[in-house]
Amino acid sequence: MVHWDVLTVRHSSPRRLDVALTLGPLGHGPADPTFHRGVDGTVWRTSLLHTGPVTQRFVPAGPHEVVVHLWGDGAREAAETLPALLGEDDDTTGFAPPPQVRDAHRRAAGMRMVRTGRVLEALVPAVLEQRVQIVTAHRAWRWLVRRHGTPAPGPAPADVPGGLRVVPDARTWTRVPVWDWHRAGVDPGRARTVARCALVAPRLEEACAMAPAEARLRLEKVQGVGVWTSAEVAQRAFGDADAVSVGDFHLPAAVGWALSGERTDDGGMLRLLAPYAPHRHRVVRLLMIDGRHKAPRRGPKLPIADYRAF
């Protein structure tokens, strides 16, 4: 049996802290090998930092505290960046939620904007989610990380078959063979975009130190990365509370229905959210948490495209 040294940190916040809601956007599907929510309220997460891989186990210890156990070479770096990850820099000054989500805002008082500071980790799953049903993207992410990632340091949750995994590094992403993309159900266009991002990963990681608009422009210089993808990365890697996922298939209808009682397009969505800048993404998250304002479905569901059959 391998023995792993553990670093334990107790993080106390002056504000309410809901770990599950704050870290929730980092999970990509119920079987994500890099993220797991335990039935006991704990949250497990893995990451690949500058100093190496890390496994983090978050144990809520009250409305303002969480105990974090860290394993792996990246443990100390992860401990140092813990406040940023848990949204301690998330400034809600001046935020007045729309009436439709005031109840959700009250119930989700401990929700922060997560900030990982890891661009490629957010970028790859966002690229996989481009233009496909989310279940297909989650399946691809799970398959690729299990195939090309590395075993996570430390223990693993008992209810995660195969244990947790750490995402592949940039060099590994550039070397995923064509047939593995095919087996994962990823079309050649998205596969090439992931490879292009991985080739310039050091430059993309620098975006974490830039202003949000400048950071997103740098991401969008990579062919295949558009405004939707850069927004998804900004929400997770930069903690951007204003990044709206323009170009999302379902989001404009959901926002339009919630805030005006009518479906709308991207332009209409942005007009409805404009009064809440610089907290537009925060409003969207609250709408998703509330769940009472779903637009009625129109027409049959689209069939799931399975690129493995091509």
Automatic annotation (TrEMBL):
DNA damage among keywords: yes
Gene3D superfamilies recorded: Hypothetical protein, domain 2
Signal sequence, start to end: none
Keywords, comma-separated and alphabetical: DNA damage, DNA repair
TM regions (residue ranges): none
SUPFAM superfamilies linked to this entry: DNA-glycosylase
PANTHER family named among the record's database cross-references: DNA GLYCOSYLASE (PTHR43003:SF6), DNA-3-METHYLADENINE GLYCOSYLASE (PTHR43003)
Protein name per UniProt: DNA-3-methyladenine glycosylase
